[in-house]
Structure formats: C-alpha cells, structure tokens
UniProtKB/TrEMBL annotation:
It is found in: Membrane. Residues 27-477 form the Major facilitator superfamily (MFS) profile domain. Keywords: Membrane, Sugar transport, Symport, Transmembrane, Transmembrane helix, Transport. GO terms for cellular component: membrane. Gene3D superfamilies: MFS general substrate transporter like domains. It is a multi-pass membrane protein. It holds the Pfam family Sugar_tr. InterPro entries: MFS_dom, MFS_STP/MST-like_plant, MFS_sugar_transport-like, MFS_trans_sf, STP/PLT_plant, Sugar/inositol_transpt, Sugar_transporter_CS. This is Major facilitator superfamily (MFS) profile domain-containing protein. Its main location: membrane. The keyword Hydrolase does not apply. Belongs to the major facilitator superfamily. Sugar transporter (TC 2.A.1.1) family.
Length: 512
C-alpha cells in the first residue's frame, strides 16, 4: 500500500501532492542497478590488478618488479603506464560516450539511454572475461566505459525526475548505494577467485560484470519513461498526466503538471543546450556541473577504489589480507551511504557535505603522517600501524559515503532546468570521467614521487572543496526540481549573477 504524503516546500513555493508508490520504488530500483555496474567495475579493476597471475599474464614488467626487484621503493613497485591504462581507458570512453548519451537522453528518452548503457557494458564484460592479450582487455574496458557513460548520464536524471520532491534525495542516493553494493560484490568475488588454483580466477572476476549488466538491460525494457521526458519529447500533456498520476498514486497532479509543461515550453526554444548553458542565467548550474564532480574525484576516493589492494600490499599486508581489508572498507561505505539516505531529506545536503569534508580531511592527514613517519622506501610498516591506517581509511570512506559520494550525483541531477538538464548532466559526467581518468592514469606515478605526501595532496583539496560548499552551495532539500531556480535567486552570491526572486519573468522574455 502506498503511503500518502503532501509535498510541501518552504519559501512560499507551491504544493505538490503525492505518495511514495510501489511503482516508483520498483522503477527506481531497476534504474539504480546502473550504479551496481559502475561500482562493480571500480572494485573489480583494483582487485584483479593485485592478483599475481593477472599481472604475470598481462603486465609481466610490474610482476617482475613486485616479486624480484628488492631495490625499488615500496611506493614505486606498481608504477606502470600500461597498468594504469587498463584502469583509465574506461573513463576516456565514458567521457566521450556521455556527450552522445546527452542527445540520446534528450531526443529518445531516459529509458533508451539506460538500455544502451546496459547492453554496452554487457558486451565489455564478455570481452574482458575472454581476453587473450592486453589489447582485448583494454578494448573490453572501452566498451565498459561506453556503458558507464550512458548509465551515469541517464540514471541520476531518471531517479530525480521520478522521485517525489520530498524524497528525491533518498531515492537518488540509491544510485550511490548501488555503487557501494557493486564495489562490495566485486571485492567479495575477488577474494574468492584469487584463491582458485590455476591462476584463472581473474577471468571470473571480470566476466561476472555481465550479471548486473544483464539485470539492467532486461529491466530497462520494462521501465516507464519519466513524465518530464514524455512532455519534452512528445508534447503530449495527457499522456504525461496519466504517467504522473501513476507515479504519484493520486489523481490531482495538476500543479506539478503545470510546472512540467512550463519547463517544457522553455526547453523547446533551446536548439543548442550546450551553447545555452554557458549563458549568464545558467552560470550557477554550470559552475556546479564542473566543480562538484571535480571535487568528488580529488577527494582521492577513486584511488582507494582502484588501488586499495595495492596500497595495502605496499603496507605489508598479504594478498588475501589486502583483499579482506578492501571488503571491510566496502561494508563501511555501504552502511554510511544508507545513513545518508535516511537523513539527507531531513537535515539537508549542505550539512552532510561539510561534516563529511571535515572527517575526510583529518583522516587523510593522519594517514599521510603515519606513512611518512613509519613506511620508508624499503621494508614494511609494522602490523599495528598498518591496522591503524586501515581504521583511518575506513573513517575516510565513511565520511565520503555519506557526503561527497551520494551528494556528488544527487545535487547536479536536481539543479538543472529542463531545457539544459541533459546537457548539464552530461557535463557533470564528462568532468567526472575526465578527472577520474587523470587520477587513475597518474596516481601510481604520483605515489612513486609524492610517497606519503599523496595523502596531504588530496587532503588539501578536501579543505578547498569544503570551503567551496560552505560559501557557494545553497540548500536544495525539498525544493521541487522544476522550481529549483529560486535557490540561486535567494543565495547571497548567486543572486548578483542571475537576479533576485521576482525576476523570473526576465528568463521567459529572453527565451521568447
């Protein structure tokens, strides 16, 4: 039975009525599997690159340095551009694919974009699992990147548009929760396959990505299109009204429908959304579309996702212990993301951003300090200090998992007006992939040269981004997605750029 609730919003904004219906919950659960495939890839790539049979077959130079070169620094054992290309090739493909996904999402709808992403990821999983040489492996990663590019562009939009405003945060964070589930699943599989005799367990790890990809591809066939997309593409208010009644579980959806029709009318005047988004009236959204994913990546979290097993090996933990440590951090991340789901629509986005930033900053500074003091270029850190580092990394992961992890996807997906929504989300995803690629491609070299200072490097960025949120990000909780423009006009800084409340009609005049 659906639970009835009135969608009330502060600041004198209009009311939307609606219920959290099973229809919405099931649709969003299927769509959020897009997060599972992303998380699985993050977890699996880090795990297989710590498996000796995988390194020996595809990256023999790294394997030789790890096993036989006793003179090389602990921080430099895994420094290989070919090895980092295995990880980072996905993100180059995802960056390019996200721009194609923008057109698919806007012209054909959110559902076809999700379907295309699932199918591409499925093909990439099959190719990686069957890889005979490093070129097959990297081409498979490129297909995986196309899949992730499409799903990361379309799924957060789908979730934000389907969700009732009052629960948009919790539902959208389901995407990040699924990323965490994907990472945990990958780490559990890596832990088991690493023990398979014969050295072919890595094939199972890579090929198992086909399981969530199949679930997403088949499930996408039955997904409904969002009311926003139906109005934008087909200009059929009656069909959109029927879908809106179905997803909200009530008959009286006219206030929300009126806002959707108004937003659609504006969007139809925009022929080139990527040109439009650079104009002054969209300056706050453009800044956030670039800054938030950039900051999300320079927290250093993807370093933990990709290279945690390698990091724990460098600390002196064995191969199995390193993989077990990553499983522990994955559990911490999922639990913390679930906490974020429970509180994000009650206490708001900004408090979570700030508290998570402070927590990440101090944990990184302490990790860097311990490694600088206790881990030299040769030998191992004591087991006691290794476990202290593990605890601090768990603290860091929990801070990310209830702040920049989920909110880095939630906030960009809810702030764009309909006319630039697909373009804005594509910019968000592209920036995320661009800097993920840069970090993935350079981290092992940075680790070799910066050594323990790498944690101070990322900690410095966390301090910058926490200050950025405090000063420039307005609170968006409970604001209907089609009325989000008001938060910029009420903000102390952005109102100087876009005008104050009461100037909304100027936007319509500019577009007419």
């Amino acid at each position: 039975m659906a639970v009835g609730m009135a969608m009330t919003n502060g600041g004198g904004q209009s009311q939307y009525s609606g219920k959290m219906t099973p229809f919405v919950v099931l649709s969003c659960m299927v769509a959020a599997i897009g997060g599972v495939i992303f998380g699985y890839d993050i977890g699996i790539s880090g795990g297989v690159t710590s498996m000796e049979p995988f390194l020996e077959k595809f990256f023999p130079e790294v394997y030789t340095k790890m096993k036989h070169d006793t003179k090389i620094s602990n921080y430099c054992k895994f420094d290989s551009q070919l090895l980092t290309s295995f990880t980072s090739s996905l993100y180059v493909a995802g960056l390019v694919a996200s721009f194609f996904a923008s057109s698919v999402t806007r012209i054909f709808g959110r559902k076809p974009s999700i379907l295309a992403g699932g199918a591409a990821f499925l093909a990439g999983a099959a190719l990686c699992g069957a890889a005979l040489n490093v070129y097959m492996l990297i081409f498979g990663r490129i297909l995986l990147g196309v899949g992730v590019g499409f799903t990361n562009q379309s799924v957060p939009l789908y979730l934000s548009e389907m969700a009732p405003p009052r629960h948009r945060g919790a539902i959208n964070i389901g995407f990040q929760l699924c990323i965490g589930i994907g990472v945990l699943s990958a780490n559990l599989i890596n832990y088991r396959t690493e023990k398979i005799e014969g050295g072919w367990g890595w094939r199972i790890s890579l090929a198992m990505a086909a399981v969530p990809a199949s679930m997403l591809t088949l499930g996408a066939l039955f997904l409904p299109e969002t009311p926003n997309s139906l109005i934008q593409r087909k200009n059929d208010p009656q069909k959109a009204k029927l879908m809106l009644q179905k997803v909200r579980g009530i008959d009286d959806v006219q206030p929300e429908l009126d806002d959707l029709i108004k937003a659609s009318a504006i969007s139809k005047t925009i022929k080139h959304p990527f040109k439009k988004i650079i104009q002054r009236q969209y300056r706050p959204q453009l800044v956030m579309a670039i800054a938030i994913p950039f900051f999300q990546i320079v927290t250093g979290i993807n370093v933990i996702g990709f290279y945690a097993p390698i990091l724990f090996l460098a600390l002196g933990l064995g191969e199995s212990a390193a993989l077990l440590s990553v499983i522990l951090t994955s559990f911490v991340g999922i639990f913390s993301t679930f906490i974020s789901m429970l509180v994000v629509d009650k206490i708001g986005r900004k408090i979570l951003f700030l508290s998570g930033g402070i927590q990440m900053f101090w944990s990184q500074i302490l990790v860097g300090g311990i490694m600088a003091a206790k881990l030299g270029d040769h030998g191992e850190i004591s087991k006691g200090y290794a476990y202290i580092v593990l605890v601090l990394i768990c603290v860091y992961v929990s801070g990310f998992a209830w702040s920049w992890g989920p909110l880095g996807w939630l906030v960009p997906s809810e702030i764009f007006p309909l006319e630039i929504r697909s373009a804005g989300q594509s910019i968000t995803v592209a920036v995320s992939f661009l800097f993920t690629f840069i970090i993935a491609q350079t981290f092992l070299a940075m680790l070799c040269h910066f050594k323990a200072g790498i944690f101070f490097f990322f900690g410095g960025w966390v301090a910058v981004m926490t200050s950025f949120v405090y000063l420039l990000l307005p609170e968006t909780k409970n604001v209907p997605i089609e009325q989000m423009e008001r938060v910029w006009r009420e903000h102390w800084f952005w109102k100087r750029i876009v005008g104050e409340v009461g100037d909304e009609e100027s936007k319509l005049q500019e577009l007419s």
